[in-house]
Amino acid sequence: MREAQELHEATEEYCASPLEDNLFEWHFTVQGPPSTDFEGGVYHGRILLPPEYPMKPPNIILLTPNGRFEINKKICLSISGHHPETWRPSWSIRTALLALIAFMPTPGNGTIGSLEISKEKRQKLAKKSLSWQCDTCGKIVDLLSKNTVKKPITEEEQTMLNTIALKADDSPTSDTAVNAESNAENELRQRNVDSTPTENQDRQQSDVIINQQVETMSSSNDLFWSILIASLVSAIILLVLRRLFLV
Predict the structure, then answer these.
(1) One Pfam family from the UniProt entry (predicted)?
(2) In sequence order, which residues have a C-beta less than 8 Å from that of residue 117 and are 6 or more positions away?
(3) Cα 103 from chain centre
(4) For the chain, what are the domain ranges?
């Protein structure tokens, strides 16, 4: 596998390699980004490749407590399996590792697998991470190379990292949009609640009008029959009187 050969040599920034018995599962170690809450920390995790890789993105799982991502859970990133629509087949495991490092200082904003804790707790976890060990790989702090500097970032990788930074800057706006949408839904529900009494009043008024019309029609019918009966009685009386006088 070409990527296994390219990532075989560890750098001071990251290292990654597949398991001996499973090329679809990789273990990786990354250095905490400098000038952040994670500076000085070393973080270990798993990368699970789908059979369709590189056409589909990998899943990333952190194993070392870090304060940014939940451990033993697939995390939600634009380069992970949660967002196949943003993944590019030209990206690689190295791209995923660079993105993970870039994502660490960004706010979680409630995404799947994210955490929001204080700066002090993250710094404590960064110190504790130096003694963390993987059952498969051993002590993770020894996996990174102190002699090999990190490789230069390609233009495509830089574009990807800039996109990540842009999304991080835009995240509050997204939250505002969600809140605005929620407020709009609540307002619509309130309008529906407020309109219910008015609808009931209109229905009651309609019922009154219909009842009045029915009563009016009933009264008209009674008057018609009364006139008809009176006319018939008058006709009968006239006929009787006429017969009497003729006789």
Answers:
(1) UQ_con
(2) 67
(3) 18
(4) 2-169
The Cα 10–Cα 4 span in angstroms is: 11
Q: Which fold has domain 2-169?
A: Ubiquitin Conjugating Enzyme (3.10.110)
pLDDT of res. 177: 37
Please say if 15 is a catalytic residue. Answer: no
The predicted model scores a pTM of: 0.65
Catalytic-role residue among 15, 76, 134, 137: 76
Beta bridge partners of 27: 17, 46
Alpha helix segments (H runs only) across 36-154: 93-103, 119-128
Half-sphere exposure of 174 (CA within 13 A, CB side): 11
CB-based contact 108:68 (threshold 8 Å): yes
Residue 12 main-chain phi, psi, to 5 deg: -75, -15
One-letter identity of residue 78: S
Residue 160: closest CA among 70, 94, 65: 94
Residue 171 has pLDDT above 90, yes or no: no
